[in-house]
Amino acid sequence: MEKMRNAFFLTPVLFAALTASAAPVNPAAIRAAAAYSAGQGGTSFLAIQNGQTILEQSANEPHKIYSGVKAFWGLTALAAVDDGLLSLDERVAETIPAWSADPRKARVTIRQLLDFSSGLEPVFYLHNNDPGDRDSLAIRAPVVANPGSAFIYGPSSLQVFHAVLKEKLKGESPTHYLERRVLHRLGLGSQRYLTDRAGNPLLAAGWLLSARQWAKLGEVALAGGAPVLTPGSIAQSWRGSGANRAFSLGWWNNKAAPGGREFDIESMLVPKWQRQTWGGTVLCRNAPSDLVACIGSGYQRLYVIPSMNLVVVRHGSGTRFSDAQFLRLLVGK
User: Fold this and answer.
1) What residue spans define the domains of the chain?
2) SS (H, E, C) the chain
3) CATH fold for domain 66-186
4) CA 61 centroid distance within chain
5) pLDDT tens, the chain, 333 aa long
6) What are phi and psi of 125, to 5 degrees?
7) Rounded CA gap, 140 and 305, in Å?
8) Does pTM surpass 0.90?
């Protein structure tokens, strides 16, 4: 761990010279959080406040971000709303006619697909390298809970969204739209899409991003969606759903702080959805309630704290890691 701790370095930026948009963070708190991350298998770390790099380690090395990908597709959905292609609250059956024949599928909205509250069977084998036509398999998957009643985290809902977006684009592929409308504006290029035999990408995971690259998404969140979205649109990502108040469009929120329940979100996602409990979910009771995060398996994390104008990225190696402990150190609590 000592070797890892020494690998961190402060940039030449003086903390007193940070812009007035947020009070300078405590450098000792940032170092303490970075040291905790390293001690729990962290492989990279990056902290940016007011647009200035405060502390970094291996920030340019790409890593798998797993479910961290989901928020990029959420951002793409919001771009499609801005472009007049769709509404989050329209019924999926308006675009996928086969869903009209099923009373429960007929009620599902695009928002519920993106919030994982559609009630659709998760169909985890869609993560496999060659599952067949992911979109068709997801469209045919059964609804196992009433729409809006349960948080069921899995790839099928996102693949149905891919099919909807593909129809809405009328010739342009969703990945091309993602790149043109979102990634290029962030200075990012084509990603590792893990396409199936029908050419459908896996929306739930697959990308490799460095801490610096992933932080670009955090900077979009701080900027209210710019340069991708119109002002105010990104707030849809923090609203939560009736099934899970702490999750929307690929982002986890801390709105229940200073109350709520702290627990390992990744561990909660392991049992079947019927045994998961999401009431009062909070990332850290001591962190600001405006904190939002993208969470990827193996403890990949992107944290954004707008009230501190702070973006923090850590990549993990799978060693157990506590969001609450890390965040308490980060904010000096």
Assistant:
1) 2-8+21-64+208-330, 66-186
2) CHHHHHHCEECCCCHHHCCCCCCCCCHHHHHHHHHHHHHCCCCEEEEEECCEEEEEECCCCCEECHHHHHHHHHHHHHHHHHCCCCCCCCEHHHCCHHHHHCCCHHHCEHHHHHHCCCCECCCHHHHCCCCCCHHHHHHHCCECCCCCCCCCCCHHHHHHHHHHHHHHHCCCCHHHHHHHHHHHHHCCCCCCCCCCCCCCCCCCCCCEECHHHHHHHHHHHHCCCCCCCCCCHHHHHHCCCCCCCCEECCEEECCCCCCCEECCHHHHCCCCHHHCCCCCEECCCCCCCCCEEEEECCCEEEEEEHHHCEEEEEECCCCCCCHHHHHHHHCCC
3) Beta-lactamase (3.40.710)
4) 20
5) 333 333 333 333 333 333 346 888 999 999 999 999 999 999 999 999 999 999 999 999 999 999 999 999 999 999 999 999 999 999 999 999 999 999 999 999 999 999 999 999 999 999 998 899 999 999 999 999 999 999 999 999 999 999 999 999 999 999 999 999 999 999 999 999 999 999 999 999 999 999 999 999 999 999 999 999 999 899 999 999 999 999 999 999 999 999 999 999 999 999 999 999 999 999 999 999 999 999 999 999 999 999 999 999 999 999 999 999 999 999 998
6) -70, -10
7) 39
8) yes
Read off the amino acid at residue 109. T
